[in-house]
Amino acid sequence: MARKRRGTPIHGWLNIDKDAGLSSAQVVGRIKRITNAQKVGHAGTLDPFATGILPIALGEATKTVGYIVDETKEYRFTVRWGEARNTDDIEGEVVRSSDFRPTTDEIQKLLPEFIGVIRQQPPAFSAIKIGGERAYKLARAGADLDMPVRDVHIESLSLIRVIDNDHAIFEVSCGKGTYIRALARDMALKLGTVAHLSTLHRVRVGPFSEADAISLDKLAKLWQCPAKFVDLLPLTTALDDIPALAVTEQEAFRLRHGNDVAVPNKADGVVCAMEGDIPVGIAKIESERLYPVRIFNL
Q1: For residues 17 and 20, what is the distance between their CA atoms, to the nearest angstrom?
Q2: Contact 123, 146 (CB under 8 A)
Q3: Do residues 136 and 128 lie in contact, with contact meaning Cβ atoms separated by under 8 Å?
């Protein structure tokens, strides 16, 4: 007999505005304590020093996390010129310095080189696995890592403001797997200097933006009356880019039990099967048959 999961069955998304000093795992832990939800997970890790949007999935919404991880993300970040750190951010140790500071014109002329598909070497202090171990654990132990270079996509990159000779603020829109720390590092090297991130703020993750984000402190206060809580977003928030397909009660029953159903004249592709307002699950159409891929237990 399956063991009953502890906690309250809550299904949906929270758009959290993360404070500096908290890891993504710590945010998940706090939300578990605040909501008593049976299952909680995050979509897209934010480093402890970083702030901003951290989408949190509760209950059956955790089955849609992968769709948010693949979404475009937007960041606002501050580069500190002339000082390289082993983590490529403000939390690391200084490993190299440079007296050279780029001008505004030099920075502006460089930016087009970092738009589109670019080659990027992730920081050694990252969660990428090397030989089965997290790179940051190996780096902390003093290992000399040769991080694998990979392609990432930068949709847009702009200089917002030059604060002073040492600091400049940028905004970037990028695809999955992009390290903003590595972007700042590589821009500096191209400009003939070194740099690290002094601030990093995530502005948007797919459909989650600053406009409707909520802090953990505000969440704790509002959740004192969860029945009236309106900031819980629907499970389907992560599936905005996936077409909805209406199914009958009988078809929904078959899908929930792992069976396929006929869908005449429907093009092949991934859809979200809906029984009225209730999401049944993620399904795939192949040759006019609808096959369940991930069913929601609602």
Answers
A1: 10
A2: no
A3: no
> Cα 140 to chain center, whole Å?
24
With tokens 């078809």, the residue in question is 251
Distance between CA atoms of residues 259 and 257, nearest Å:
6
Q: What is the pLDDT of residues 90-109, one digit of tens each?
A: 988 999 999 999 999 999 99
Q: What is the pLDDT of residues 181-192, one digit of tens each?
A: 999 999 999 999
CA distances from 196 to 69, 159, 168, 190 (A): 25, 16, 11, 14
Q: Name the catalytic one among 17, 47, 89, 186.
A: 47
Report the Cα 116 to chain-centroid distance in Å: 20
- What one-character-per-residue DSSP string does 172-221 give? EEE-TT--HHHHHHHHHHHTTS-EEEEEEEEEEETTEEGGG-B-HHHHHH
Asked if 219 contacts 231 with a C-beta cutoff of 8 angstroms, the reply is yes
List 74's β-bridge partners, or say none.
173, 204
How far apart, in whole angstroms, are the C-alpha atoms of residue 76 and residue 204? 10
AA letter at 222? L
List beta partners, residue 15.
55
Residue 1 pLDDT level (bands cut at 50, 70, 90): very low
State which amino acid sits at residue 101.
R
**Residue 19 a catalytic site member:** no
